[in-house]
Amino acid sequence: MVRPRPEVAPAQPWSFPKPASYQLGNGLRVELFNRPGQHVTSTRLLVPAPLVVEPRDVEGVAAMVSRTMDEGTQSHSADELAELFERDGVALGAGYAARGLTVELEATTSHTERGWELLRECLSEPVFPEAEVDRHVRQRLAEIDHEFASPGNRAALEWSSTFYESRSRASRPAWGSTESVGRITSADCVRFHQQWVRPGGATVVVAGDLDEPVVLASLERTLGQWHTESPADADDSLAAIVAEATPRLVFVDRPGSVQTEIMIGSLGPDRRAPGGWAPYPALSFVLGGAPTARLDSVLREEKGFTYGFRAGFRPRSSGGTFFAAGSVRADATVEALEIALDVLDGAGRGFTGTEARMAVDYIGKTAPARYATADAVADEAASLRLDGLSTGFVTDYLAQLATLTAADLDRAWQLWANQPRCIVLVGDAQLYADAVRSLDVGGVTVVH
């Protein structure tokens, strides 16, 4: 017997989970997301201190501090700490981004308090052993070599150094250069940690199957015992200053390269964009967020020049960027660049209702699945908190997203479509630079 096909009901409106907010005795803000049935607790600790606070001569020291806080404390050696984390099944990781330090901790419910106690120890009494810091410095220097060898990373580094003024922190690698990382010592890590890694202004986000009174008492016994003086104010005015003399194109020469990395970037909005943020994820999807997007449909599906060409808006805490990027066959360098620019210019002639609906359906209807796990909830809450936003932002922009039309996408695109572009190519400049100049994209600078 063949049963009739079931009716698919329309997706219901969905809201991001709301946290219960508290503050510990040491001033540390707490956001608790109760996710019943999820017995691995996800913790994110956020310490706001933008990269601009790093001393210029040792840029990368913030990332080095994040890597070495657990490499020995006043109470335990690096090996002892590693054994303690492993014995209790606690996973710890840390990293530094433009707005500050983020520490991630995953543990089963029964071992979460032990994880928080070990985290407090790493935050409040790290000793930054010289041998461990030197080891991580050497590792970071090796990573920088790999980043320069990667066409995508090389293009991103060149784009940032070209698009932003040299005095702007955004013009230089977030985790430091070969020269600055090579100067970092244990003493530099100690100084940075003492000045900037503090509970004042920091937030801890916890998501999982939580008993709130029990969790709060546990946090007070552990992270609540992390005490330091209040941090100094940070001047973020030099974070991302755009250089003059746009548009421009830089061709990084790699003789014999069989592919060319193309990166096209310009100014874009941040999450506080006038008119709301919702149109911009939709525009990203339509232009370069799926195999059916405008760029891929031509460069990949029709021409076969690339395995994938992506585009999208990337918000910063103040302002943002728009990028379109991908690798193409070397012999298609000129035509692929011309097509990509034509697609972006052609977007100004309008989007279709079908494109708008596909973007709205994909982004909106997959949201509940994207945020189904405790770690995804904690990650999103942490990212928004560092940007000075609450998780209500997600609920609000998804509600706006559901109402978007093609006309809304047109209006949002027109606000940013005419921003000057900076273009970086990484490939065989000897073969293709002259042909690129013929595209009337402005002056072409070749970097060897």
From TrEMBL:
SUPFAM superfamilies: LuxS/MPP-like metallohydrolase. Residues 30-147 form the Peptidase M16 N-terminal domain. It holds the Pfam family Peptidase_M16. Residues 184-351 form the Peptidase M16 C-terminal domain. GO terms for molecular function: metal ion binding. InterPro entries: Metalloenz_LuxS/M16, MPP/UQCRC_Complex, Pept_M16_N, Peptidase_M16_C. PANTHER family: METALLOPROTEASE, PROCESSING PROTEASE. This is Putative Zn-dependent peptidase. It comes from Rudaeicoccus suwonensis.
